[in-house]
Amino acid sequence: MTSKSLAAPVFFSDSLSESIRPLSIIDALPRDGAISRFAAFSDTHMGYWGELGKNKTWHAFETYQALAPDLDAFFVIGDVCTQNTWEEVNHFRDGIVAPLPTLFPSRPPLYLLMGNHDFIAWNIAGFEHHYGKALRAYRDPTWLASDDTPMDRDYGQQQNTVVKVGDTTIIKLCGTDQVDWDYQPCYDFLAASLEQAAFEKPDHPIFVMAHHPIPGLLISDADDAEYYGEDTSRDLIALMAQYPQVIFMAGHTHNPLQIPTSIDTDLGFTAICTAMTGASLWYAWEELEDTKDNTSQGLLVDVFADGSVKMYRIDLMTGNLMPAVWNISPNTVASEEFSTIRRRIATDGPEFPAASQITFEDQQDQALAIWPQATKYSVEQTEDFVFSYRYTAWGMKSGLSYGTDDFMSDFYKSNLADTVQIPLAIDASDPCAITMQAVNPYGVASTPLTTETPYEVLSLSGDNRYHTSTLISFRTFISSSDIIIATGADFPDALAASGLAGLLDAPVLLTAPDYLPEVIAAEITRL
């Protein structure tokens, strides 16, 4: 792979059913003395859209063979299957594992981690038994599947175990049979494994893998928070923070690796979300079925004797590498190179083109709002591009809200349109106004783009200051999970609260010092 390929813009490739880049023209990546080299990816989802998950996963292995025929191991970080049916297991056994030696005659280990989908219908013992038989046949071609004697070693199927790839330690975390992907019962195992690995090679990276990402990162799902015992006596996050050489790798989010927050060091160690391989994009708002054919990404990891690590982000459909290799060293956490907090401060937010305007097209009982794309993802712009759009719409006569929403941009598409549009259900007698902001992956928003109103500025005036605060809230918010209450007796409290209100996107309501006015109570109930 040439240096020019490393700088090429990478978007999601064309459909698997159409022509893709011939793997024969891909040059293998030089190992450059790496003592360990392994592939890491997740969410292969056998059974997804029939055989699509299997076909995409097999093509991923083909791409890895073209890029790194000297791989030492593979890691599938959870959700091997979708519903754990026998058909899906057979897809994995017959469509992936059995023919894998045709790509890798040396039969490098294939290590599996369980994800939440892998707990459907099975416990850990069931997973280890059935997948273990397939992996045993792969690692030991003399073994007969009819031999049902207990497996005497780990062929890649065992959970909550430590494996060595070359001279590199990888700790595989799984949940429990009772609470599936709750990782807190793994605390003692992880504590002992980290202590041993750090004792053996103090300055060497320690990889920890689990299906669900660490909570608190922008890339994580909110429902992951309880899995790692955060703020309890068995807090795995605090435990890993004692070892800055930890590189934690997860899956689950189906995130595109173009998102810069896929890597983060703000918790005291390096945390990474790998990408989906056999499924489709799912990030933050909705599953996007139009990406099911063309999203397949993963990581290639090289570990060196000095403790440094190179991670290549790969579009597994084409073999293209994404801009900027992730270089991780023993000093990475201290340097804050991948600190989301630091990178957020360093960005200004996306920009709309000069003289941009929002226009409307009437469509029966709704209006189509149209505006130009803000800063696009590119080789030159991998941090401050438009990740999502945020808008608020209201009736210009009534002041009533037509909605407030966030939605993901199509930054990951190679054929990104020059304009964006959304339909809005409106009252024809109450023309719509809209305020639009472009938001980057760190949550930093652009200068608002606002429609010009042909009417005079709307003045909201209630019977008193408390009533007026409810009118402003009613005009702006359909609902809100956060409400800020400030005293109406003097202005400084409410003024100081305005910054927090902007951060939380929440209304500020005023209250009397010794009682809650009825209009305020009614507005809180409505929200």
Explained architecture:
The strands form six sheets. This protein has a six-stranded mixed β-sheet, with no helix packed on it. Strands 4-5-6-7-9-8 form a six-stranded mixed β-sheet, covered by helices on one side. The chain has a four-stranded antiparallel β-sheet with strand order 18-17-20-21, with helices on one face. 22% of the residues lie in helices and 22% in strands. The chain is elongated and about 85 Å long. It contains eleven helices and 23 strands. With 527 residues, the chain is α/β, with parallel strands linked by helices. Helix 2 packs parallel to helix 3 and helix 3 (86-97) packs parallel to helix 4 (124-139). The protein folds into three domains: 3-346, 4-Layer Sandwich (Purple Acid Phosphatase, chain A, domain 2), CATH 3.60.21.10; 359-450, Sandwich (Immunoglobulin-like), CATH 2.60.40; 465-526, no CATH class.
Secondary structure elements and pairings:
Elements: H1 3-7, E1 36-41, H2 52-67, E2 73-77, H3 86-97, E3 110-113, H4 124-139, E4 161-165, E5 168-172, H5 187-200, E6 206-209, H6 236-241, E7 246-250, E8 263-264, E9 270-273, E10 282-283, E11 286-287, E12 297-303, E13 309-315, E14 326-328, H7 332-335, H8 340-346, E15 359-363, E16 366-372, E17 388-395, E18 401-408, E19 419-425, E20 432-439, E21 449-450, H9 465-476, E22 484-487, H10 491-504, E23 508-511, H11 518-526
Parallel strand pairs: 1-2, 2-3, 5-6, 6-7, 7-9, 22-23
Antiparallel strand pairs: 1-12, 4-5, 8-9, 10-11, 12-13, 13-14, 15-16, 16-19, 17-18, 17-20, 20-21
Helix pairs in contact: 2-3, 3-4
